[in-house]
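Review form for a predicted model. The reviewer records the input and the model, then writes brief findings.
Reviewer: anonymous (R2)
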Amino acid sequence: MTSQESTRDSSSSDLSELVNIGPAMLGYFQRIGITRISQLAGRDAVEIYEDMCRADRQRIDPCLLDTVMSAVEQSNGGPARPWWDYTTERKRLLGD
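Model under review:
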């Protein structure tokens, strides 16, 4: 993978271009009104995850937050990394 391929252009509108984002994640984002990569840029991943939990009226698997963290980082121009690279940071943030 080239460095160009490892980051995504946040001006793109297709969330599925982000690594780790498949049909299920697209559904979670759409339920809270996020349909474009630019809507993730500058956002707090924990806040987005909490919005998803409220929309589903249940606490969603916290690993979903790892994926949201990945998507937000990419939308801010960061590298495309697998979702599990964020697990340690998520556990620190949530006190798990």
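Findings: The helical segments are 3-6, 23-31, 45-56, 63-75, 87-94.
Further findings: The radius of gyration is 13 Å.
Recommendation: see findings above.
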